[in-house]
Amino acid sequence: MSEHENNTSQTEEARHEVEDSLKAFIHHQRRAYEEAGKAIESLLPEGFRTHSNEARKEFFNSFKVLLDVAIDGLERIGKEVEDIVEHEEDDDSDASANGNAKSRIEVE
Question: What is the C-alpha separation between 34 and 38, in angstroms, rounded?
Fold first, then answer.
């Protein structure tokens, strides 16, 4: 094995060691987070957890209602704008068909 191949092999081994250590660190951090959550949860009475979950759901539902109303309003306004633009286009085409359209004539 050449010196370059040997260095490459050692570098790969070191990289794998670091990756494995990082994975182990992340695993232990995740477990610590989960256990801390369980510890805090165990301090809270069941009624509190039930009501706080319901409060969270109601909070999100309130924003859902608000957003639905805003979306409906925007859709209605968009439809009104489309109708106005369509009506103006019809008026423009009617005016030019009837000869009522204004045009400039250059006179020498």
Answer: 6
